[in-house]
Design a protein that fits this description.
The protein has about 260 residues and is mainly alpha-helical. It has two domains: about 190 residues; about 40 residues, no CATH class. Helix content is about 65%, strand content about 0%. Helix 1 packs antiparallel against helix 2, helix 1 packs parallel to helix 4 and helix 2 packs antiparallel against helix 4. The longest helix has about 45 residues. It is elongated, with a radius of gyration of 30 Å.
Length: about 260
């Protein structure tokens, strides 16, 4: 990315972010879709296939191995679903933090504590997210292998050959996909993105980060009120005696 003055994005000094951020802001949505939709759906298909195979009279040639692979798929996918839900419980949105802890907008100490908790939650969410994605990958591979084994017939025909070849190609593609996610191998679909929402988060709160959250007017009002309360005097605005209307009302009461 090049700016109008000729500077590149790499040459620009970025302020440290207030909150820890993922590379893609839709990370939690991907995790929610995986744990709440895809993994349960594939688990249901696997269980239905197992029930059909074991209760049928005419089983395919490799039915037993297919059942073993599908059973492994169910185990991995259910585990992935549970870990995904656990991971999302640590998804602390900055907007939710500001709603649940409004004091962070007037107190730098409270803001620092909230930032530390959010950073800890983010680390735990991504740690559990990696486990969930890994279990999902294993479950998906087991599901596809179970399907491939299920399609191996006793007597081959053109239709069976097409079905096995297509499913085998999907298995290879998925294996490529998973390997690329964990190595430097080129991904079959995704491309390397140079720009990212993630940045080097530090516990220190910079001036720009402080100004982005702290409401200076409210902070000064809170400091003034706490100072008056600490000195034993009630705030003038609270008693009404600090205004002309308040003094007139007090005079009338004294008369």
């Amino acid at each position: 990315m090049t700016f109008t003055d000729g500077r590149s994005d790499d040459a620009v000094s970025h302020p440290a972010p207030v909150w820890k951020r993922p590379q893609a802001l839709g990370y939690h949505e991907e995790l929610r879709g995986l744990g709440g939709i895809v993994a349960p759906l594939l688990s249901g298909f696997s269980l239905a296939a197992i029930a059909t195979i074991v209760t049928g009279d005419d089983m395919p040639a490799l039915a037993e191995w297919s059942v073993a692979a599908l059973a492994a798929a169910v185990a991995f996918l259910i585990f992935s679903m549970q870990v995904a839900f656990a991971s999302l419980s640590y998804n602390s949105f900055p907007a939710e933090i500001l709603t649940w802890r409004p004091e962070v907008t007037v107190s730098e100490d409270e803001l620092q504590r909230a930032r530390a908790v959010q950073a800890s939650d983010f680390d735990e969410m991504t740690r559990l997210g990696r486990i969930s994605f890994s279990a999902y990958s294993a479950g998906l591979m087991a599901f596809l292998l179970g399907l491939l084994l299920l399609l191996i017939p006793d007597d081959w025909s053109a239709a069976w050959i097409v079905a096995v070849c297509v499913t085998g190609a999907v298995v290879v593609l998925e294996l490529w996909w998973i390997t690329a996610n964990h190595t430097g191998l080129r991904h079959p679909v995704e491309r390397q993105v140079k720009l990212s929402h993630a940045d080097d988060w530090t516990p220190e709160l910079g001036a720009i980060a402080r100004a982005a959250v702290i409401d200076v007017a409210r902070q000064q009002a809170a400091s003034a009120n706490s100072g008056e309360t600490g000195s034993g005097r009630a705030p003038a605005a609270a008693t009404g005696l600090g205004s002309g209307a308040g003094r007139d009302e007090a005079d009338r009461e004294s008369q």
